[in-house]
Amino acid sequence: MGAVGMEDTMSEYVRRFQEKYSTALLADAGFRAGVPVGIPPSGIIPLARDQKLAGPVVPVRVNNDLIAILGAVHQAGPGEVIVLANRTYEVALLGDLLATDASRKGLAGFVVDGLVRDTTTLLEIGLPVFCRGTLPIGPLKLPAELKGLGESGVAVTLGEVTVNPGDWVFGDADGVIFFPADRLPAVFEQAEESWAREEALTTELRGGAALGDLLDIEGFLQKRAADPTADFNAHLAERGRAI
Question: What's the predicted TM-score (pTM) here?
Answer without folding.
Answer: 0.90
